[in-house]
């Protein structure tokens, strides 16, 4: 893919993401095989404990991969879901190395223990091949079918993974993400609402930056209109966790929100 110009690479990614065979099980299988293949090549140049080596070599098994994923340390995920200490083979100098794996992203990285961890990790990580350092390079586009009902756990998980690499909105008008959130709120689907708010990032193609799912003034107004009392879950969440997203010029909206949630 790196032989392609940026625009062609983005179009290729978008086409792959939109394909009907691009599913969560297939993506997980590709990630597992990608890591297993890369790790086998890396292990040829590393010495490590027999137990760690055996654990690494079992990751091409779906059950072992899923077990490792379930046991990953979320508090230190920026360092790696799994981290192994090793040394270069004696013929290569025997210097210490650290092997880190990010199972959620299909990525791995080998570095000296005292080296700074860059955000590029393994540049061939899946589901993206755009590299990145906080700003996406020639990202693909999240397909429309992942942004509409019916919502399932598998669809939301695939959306979460893909939205960390591909863009949802063209610009800061947030047309697509605003429509999705509006539809979910109208359907009173609080489970999907929570997933979008707490676990899915949104990137704009124009800026290449990621952020929390956008909440616009219209969403607050919708929550007020459809609220089922002051403890309405949508209204309560938006007021308690996204209050800063209420435009400063919307003084009446702020007053109405406070009156509803505090005054009841």
Model description:
- The chain has 264 residues and is α+β, with helices and mostly antiparallel strands.
- The chain has two domains: 6-111, no CATH class; 144-263.
- 44% of the residues lie in helices and 9% in strands.
- The chain is built from ten helices and six strands.
- The strands form two sheets. Strands 1-2-3-4 form a four-stranded antiparallel β-sheet, covered by helices on one side.
- Strand 5 and strand 6 (210-211) form a beta hairpin.
- Helix 6 (175-186) runs parallel beside helix 8 and helix 8 (217-226) runs parallel beside helix 10 (251-263).
- The radius of gyration is 22 Å and the shape is elongated.
Task: List strands and helices in order, with pairings.
Blueprint lengths: L5 H13 L5 H20 L2 E2 L2 H8 L4 H9 L11 E7 L7 E7 L4 E5 L41 H11 L11 H12 L3 H10 L2 E2 L6 E2 L5 H10 L6 H9 L9 H13 L1
Antiparallel strand pairs: 1-2, 2-3, 3-4, 5-6
Helix pairs in contact: 6-8, 8-10
Helix/strand/pairing category: alpha+beta
Q: What's the number of helices?
A: 10
- Low-confidence stretches are 131-135
How many angstroms does the end-to-end distance come to? 57 Å
Number of domains: 2
The main β sheet shows up as: 4 strands, antiparallel
**Count of extended strands:** 6
Principal-axes shape call: elongated
**Content of β-strand:** 5-15%
H/E series, N to C?
A: HHEHHEEEHHHEEHHH
Rounded to the nearest angstrom, the radius of gyration is: 22 Å
Determine the fraction of residues in helical runs and give it as a percent range.
40-55%
Give, in spatial order, the strands making up the sheet with the most strands.
1-2-3-4
Mean pLDDT: 86
